[in-house]
Amino acid sequence: MSDPGSDRMPGRFTGGCQCGAVRFAVEGPLGPASICHCRMCQKAFGGFFAPLVSVREARKVTWTRGERALYQSSNLVARGFCASCGTPLTYEAPDGMAMAIGAFDDPGMITPTLQYGLEAKLPYVDHLADLSGTRTEQDIAATAFLADIVSFQHPDHDTAVWPPESVTMQHPDQLETRENDA
């Protein structure tokens, strides 16, 4: 494995959306990783910023299951996402494509090294690490709620078929038939 702080990481990287309808593989080096604070990225990601990594230097980006939907967010930029669950996947501009770091199966190995859109940076972002925190399993008030959760989220690795038949049979109204699952 490459140094997580490296701007250039060789290899094969996989990922996908939350529901598993869209999966991808990136072959070759990842480029610089960044976070963008611009208002358009905040809205596209529904978050404080957009964590992205360039794939323009990769040899190949393949959609291994399903296909991303695209939203033309400006005259020059399209944003890829899963049409089933809404997971943000790509930022596509004339100079190349970047992918959402959180959509990779191992996002912890991709370390942002620069920031963009500082004019729209939310004033409290620099202080998030100062907030008190609790691990999920330590939230006593949520114990019963957490015990009842059955996750339908796709695991952080490729699967031959998704969703599993057991989930489809239990909740057929919540899941769509997926093409390209085999």
UniProtKB/TrEMBL annotation:
SUPFAM superfamilies registered for this protein in UniProt: Mss4-like
Similarity comment: Belongs to the Gfa family.
A Pfam family hit: GFA
Native organism taxonomy: Bacteria, Pseudomonadati, Pseudomonadota, Alphaproteobacteria, Hyphomicrobiales
PANTHER family referenced in this protein's UniProt entry, alphabetically: CENP-V_GFA DOMAIN-CONTAINING PROTEIN-RELATED, GFA DOMAIN-CONTAINING PROTEIN
GO molecular-function terms, A-Z: carbon-sulfur lyase activity; metal ion binding
InterPro entries assigned: CENP-V/GFA, Mss4-like_sf
Name the UniProt record assigns to this protein: Glutathione-dependent formaldehyde-activating enzyme
Biased composition (Basic and acidic residues): 173-182
Recorded superkingdom: Bacteria
Keyword Glycoprotein carried by entry: no
Species for this entry: Methylobrevis pamukkalensis
Disordered: annotated segments: 161-182
